[in-house]
Structures are given as structure tokens and as C-alpha cells.
Amino acid sequence: MNAVFKPLLALLLSACPVVTVAGPVEDAAVALLNRAVPGKASHFTCEVILPEAGKDVFEIESRGGKIVLRGNNAVSIGSALNWYLKYHCDSDISWCGDQVVLKEPLPALMQKVRKVSPHTYRYTFNYCTYGYTMAFWDWERWERELDLMALHGINTPLLATGAEVVYRNVYRGLGLPQRDIDEFIAGPPFLPWFLMGNLNGWGGPNPESWYTRQEALQKRIMKRAMELGMKPVLPAFSGHVPAGLRQKFPDAKIARLKKWSSFESVNVLDPSDPLFRKIGVGFVREATRLYGTAHLYSADTFNEVDPPTGDPEYLRNITREVYQ
Fold it and tell me: So what's the pLDDT on residue 309?
């Protein structure tokens, strides 16, 4: 290379805020760094290492004037960044706010740090969160949340956004009219209690634009979560069905539960009915078609409501059918 251009090239490279490394894990990790510490990512190097005995691991060390962050996925590398910020830079990125002041040069480490997680699954959220807090989150807020999860080592989030789209599509596929579906699926702030089988239709019906929005949003959420190396948990079918299913399938074994709070009673399909497995399989297939899957699912069979019977055999059967 011409000697005249070498200093110029070095200057341009040092000014570039983005670390350029190859590979999907490194790409996701570098993108996370650029969002977490904008303008400072060039001071870090990201490298992929193998897990230890199947457990997530990260390492941090100084090399060549840079901080090297290593991990077996982007969540691990993000955890390494967060550890370095907290314990070497007196900085913090959290749900309560950010306090990040990075001096140059960045503080060097005297020796390598290596941490192995004792837990395979680090879970977050419950269904209620999607009503109390997250009902109207947009992508910008979700992107922030996913970054916070990665920085704090969370790798197994319940991702229930867009589950109502799956319900709508499955029951449309079974031939139920839109009127029955509208009376079944709750409005946005009440969707968690719909997903847990407590109520029908409260706060609805939802406009078509809502379903379009939520489907697109969940696709982005799932894509980013998988890029970061997370194992998302998706809702599954637990037996809660629309009242209109009785008219469409008059021979179906459907029980009406006692009221939850002051809401109207909901209907539960008997696990011995062949329709139970048909809907359950259809639900998982449709969710996978729309959003992908990490093969982890959540299903509340009787959340704060009494089952139609306390017979242990019935309870075993419904649990088995949900699982299968």
C-alpha cells in the first residue's frame, strides 16, 4: 500500500464506531454493542467461544488496547459487556435508567474474567406483564427490552405478543365466523387473562389493523431474540375455546367453568375429545409458521379458576394432552 495512504486509512478505521467481524453471533453482538454504548463499540472486540458443559459462558480481557468480549452467543457477549461496565467503569444499563460514562482509554483488566452460568434457562415475564405493562409497546420499546435482557443474561423470555393472531387464524381455519372469534378474543389490555383462560372478549373486538400490527411486531421480536441466542417461550393451547365452537361441533365435549371474578364463564374443551389435539396441533403449527419456534411453550390450564372436575384422571389427561 502507498505510504501516503496508510496514515489516512488508520485514521478512518480508528474513527469508525462499528466493529466489523464476521459471523451471525458476532454480528448480533456488535449490533448490541452499538445500541448499548453508541460511539464506543470500536473499543471492543467480540469473539465466539464454546459453551462449558452445555452452559453459557463469557470472558473479558484486555488485548492490544481493546476490551475483548467473548461468549458462546450474543446474550453471553452482552452479559460480558454489562459485567465490564458495572465492575470496571462504574456504569450501569438497567430498567431504572442508564448511567454510562466511558473514559478513554477504557480501563484495562489486569487478568481475564471468566463466568459460567449455573442455569440453562434464565426466564422472564408472566402473562400479566403483557396487560399491566406491555400491551401497547412498539418495536422501539421492545428492542430496548431485548437489549436489557441480553445485557443481564436473560435467555428465556415469554414472548406472547401476537398470540391472538394465532387464535384467530386457527378458529378461522375451523370454519368459525368472525363474529364468534370477536366475541372470544379480548382487547389488548386484557389479552393476558384471555390467554390464561379467565375471560372471553372483554375489551374487544380488535380491529383487523391490530392483528396486522401484532403479527408484524412479534415477527421482529422473535427474529431479534433468536439472533441474540435466546430460547423464546410461546403460548400454547390449553383447552379454552369459543362458545361458538358448540354450534360448529355439536358433539364436542365442552364444559362451562365457574365465573372468574365477575366475568362471564368460559368454555373448556375436554382433553378426551379428538378436537382437543386437533386444535392444539393446529395452534403450534400456526405459531411456528408465523413466528418460528424454540420448542418451548407455556399453557395455563386453570389459572385462578376451578376445573370442571377435581378427578385426578381428568387433570392428568388435560395436562398430557396439552403437552402432546
Answer: 87
Contact 108, 140 (CB under 8 A): no
Same-domain check for residues 77 and 129? no
Distance CA 306, CA 248 (A): 26
CA pair distance 54, 239, nearest whole angstrom: 35
Q: Say which CATH number the domain at 49 has.
A: 3.30.379.10
Q: Are residues 233 and 295 in the same domain?
A: yes
* Domain count of the fold of the chain: 2
**Of residues 258 and 158, more confidently modeled:** 158
Q: Compute how many other C-beta atoms are within 10 angstroms of the C-beta atom of residue 71.
A: 26
Domain that holds residue 65: 5-116
Q: Are residues 112 and 197 in the same domain?
A: no
pLDDT digits (tens, 9 = 90+) for 26-69: 999 999 999 999 999 999 999 999 999 999 999 999 999 999 99
C-alpha cell at 170: 386457527
CATH label of the domain that carries residue 272: 3.20.20.80
Q: What is the end-to-end Cα distance of the chain in Å, rounded? A: 64
In this structure, what C-alpha cell is assigned to residue 303? 389459572
> pLDDT (tens digit, 9 = 90+) per residue, 204-238?
999 999 999 999 999 999 999 999 999 999 999 99
